[in-house]
Amino acid sequence: MYPGNPPVEALGGVEIDIADNEFFTLLGPSGCGKTTILRLIAGFEHPTSGTLEMFGQSLLDLPPYKRQINTVFQSYALFPHMTVAENIGFGLEMLGRPKAEISQTVGEMMELVQMSHLADRQTGQISGGQQQRVALARALAPKPRVLLLDEPLSALDFKLRKNMQLELKRLQTETGITFIFVTHDQEEALTMSDRIAVMSDGAIRQIGSPREIYDHPADRFVADFIGDTNFLSADVVENRDGAATLRLGSGRTIAARAAQGVNGRVTIAVRPEHARLGTPAEGLLAGVLSDAVYFGTDTHFHVTLEDGTTFVLRQQNSPDSTAGYSTGDPVGVCFPAEVAQVLRD
């Protein structure tokens, strides 16, 4: 904080319980506070109020080196003048572990991350993905109870990043160590996590499993941040104990679940893969097919609705994926009522 500047509240009212042997992800845009939480857990920052406990013990008075917590940063911070094996064993040497124990642990860690064949290679002579594995092995070698990972995949190319997502989950499962992972990438979070905390502006918007977060977002921010979503305005015709009847802009009505007491104008979310193209007569919404974008595994159909908004449908490709529909055709948008999520803004 610079002199004269008012203090900035990075986090407010955050409460999280993370289970032992869990892969827990903090997900959100830049500046939302997720790295601040990681730094608080590690001991690099100190909260102005609140508690921080691990297995029933307060961490607030413990310095970072006494917390049984290790961190893997975006930059792997490996020693270029050391070999792979020496890098992995460095932390154990600093802890004063016996040489025989260090040698055994280094061997186990290299086997765990599949780097045994490169033990004598200097880290400047290996690839980015291999460097990341060395950083992981070094952090895991002292057998911490918690491993913190601050966007460790951000420097990798797309294909290697996808491979390492599976690798990280394998390592967490095999070691039984609690992983707390920070990312702004929704795919990373959905692929690896047991649970996800979606964050915004220093607050937790929702905590749940990947399926819960994706299929039942708590609000519009979560629905928009996790995956692609179509938002529609609707009016609540009736709401009895959470069983609501909604009237869409097309005039058609659908039944949906809504929180008790929700009335008036609401927003509903429909995922692109939950809708399909049909005729204007059979669709809940009607419009014109304005574009079809081919993505290899699937095609995205863009429909301009009668009110001028765009609705996107995603359909898995097959030989007859586009049969019967061409750009400019009048079409209907069909989806089962149960996929419509009534959201609070």
UniProtKB/TrEMBL annotation:
GO terms for molecular function: ATP binding. Keywords: ATP-binding, Cell membrane, Membrane, Nucleotide-binding, Translocase, Transport. Its EC number is 7.6.2.11. It catalyses: ATP + H2O + polyamine-[polyamine-binding protein]Side 1 = ADP + phosphate + polyamineSide 2 + [polyamine-binding protein]Side 1. InterPro entries: AAA+_ATPase, ABC_SmlMolc_Importer, ABC_transporter-like_ATP-bd, ABC_transporter-like_CS, Mo/tungstate-bd_C_term_dom, P-loop_NTPase, PotA-like, Transp-assoc_OB_typ2. The keyword Acyltransferase does not apply. It comes from the Bacteria. Part of the ABC transporter complex PotABCD involved in spermidine/putrescine import. Responsible for energy coupling to the transport system. This is Spermidine/putrescine import ATP-binding protein PotA. It comes from Ruegeria alba. The gene is potA.
